[in-house]
Amino acid sequence: MRSPKQCGCTISMEDLPEALLGEIIKRLPTTSDLNSISLVSKRLYTIEAELRDTIYVGCGVSPATMALASLCSRFQNLCKVEFNYSGWTTNHGMQLDNQGLHMFSSCCPLLTDLTLSFCSYIDDSGLGFLACFKKLISLRFKALPKITSAGLLSVAVGCKSLSALRLMSCKNVGSVEWLEYLGKNGLLEELVVQNCKKIDQFNLLTFGSGWMKLQKFEFQHWYLPNTFMFGGPSYMAGNQSRYDFCCDFLKDLTLARTTTEKEIGLCCLLRKCKALENLALYYALGVHDNDMITLAQNNRNLKRISLMLTPQHCDGYVYRTSLTDDSLKALALCCPRLQSFELTFYGCEPEYPEIGFTQKGLVMLIQSCPIRELTLSGVDIFNDKGMKALACAQFLESLKLVSCIAITDAGMHHLACSPSLINLALELCNGLTDRGVAKVVRARKLESLTIEKCSRISLKAVQGAAKTVHYTDDCPGYEEWMERCVYGPKVYDLHAF
């Protein structure tokens, strides 16, 4: 077959079939590319407008109501919209307000996913307009200071198709009528509550039968607990009906900065889950070996576990992390699909009994499960002997070590024999030098190498050491690392969007 060039003819963008143009536009990765291609011709402008189903509105779009009307007029098939006014000042002009949200609800009938972040002018009356989005299934509210429980109740009642709700830093949302309504409705599959001061874990237990359908749940309190705190207005020690629910379909569970005792509080979920695949416990005080053992025995599909531990009072006057090698043994025996394991210690010294785990227990877990991703942060009990055992892990592809002070170049040399390692990240590991990294680099064909704030590893040693290399040499002190463990984004903003 002769090509168009051989035929003496040329093909312009206007000659291409509409379906082909649509495929080209769908493959463009950024909004700036989409905006640019829409300027090439009227036809591309029209097709791009029809295909655009997602927009982001930030501080630069002002006046918001008029600009939004224009956007909705052009992009009539919008399904996902995010309003984010982070960093907004009065110099940016007017934000989206209740009136703008009312207008938006009337001209965007296909919307399924809405995010409102740092919208200071939207209150409960504005939330009432969300019922006009008949197809809305996902809502994210972040830092909306004027909304209260009354507004959320109107959302729960009016948004009949809602299946995902995320609340972050909404300081005036408190009472739980909205949560009880959503629980009885039984449609939510995802519920995230982060840093909402007036919502505690006992409020969330009123979700009732809603737990049965929930597949993802995340709760982060607004402070790091250091003592057991009970007796809040919604807490009734003798009311066991609060714990009489099932969560057989829960696959993804995150608990951060919670405090529980003797199965009282949200940590009771660990004993109720039977389909869990991903678990994150970030400074969840009161979780004990029995909880983890029951969890492991009931969930053979566990794939990812992330633990951040700090010492607490255990077994009388002993002050240590509440989990021990018994938990690791249960995971090793009962979780044949565990592929990702992350462990962070905060406020622990290398001496016992502050750390309940031992290096032997960690090695047992790593060698028993098909671990592909491993992160150790502040794990001072892990030394060069542990690295030697780690190098024998058959499936290990990605390793990240953060402030592991007991690991030296000798330990890194063992990684040269690792059969599958392709991604290596080292951060605040001041016991390592260029010699240790060079041995691994020469032996392994790394796809990525990340060196951050390791004072004895030079840029020269890592240049060209992998397909992708990231290097920073800004070295903070130990106190700064500890502060980041507690207040950094990994703990406080686990699912930033």
UniProtKB/TrEMBL annotation:
SUPFAM superfamilies: RNI-like
InterPro entries attached to this UniProt entry: F-box_dom, FBXL15_LRR, Leu-rich_rpt_Cys-con_subtyp, LRR_dom_sf
Pfam families noted in UniProt: DUF7885 (PF25372), F-box (PF00646)
Domain of life where this protein originates: Eukaryota
F-box domain span: 10-59
CDD domains assigned to the protein according to its UniProt record, in alphabetical order: F-box_AtTIR1-like
PANTHER family per UniProt: F-BOX DOMAIN CONTAINING PROTEIN, PARTNER OF PAIRED, ISOFORM B-RELATED
Record's protein name: F-box domain-containing protein
Organism name: Urochloa decumbens
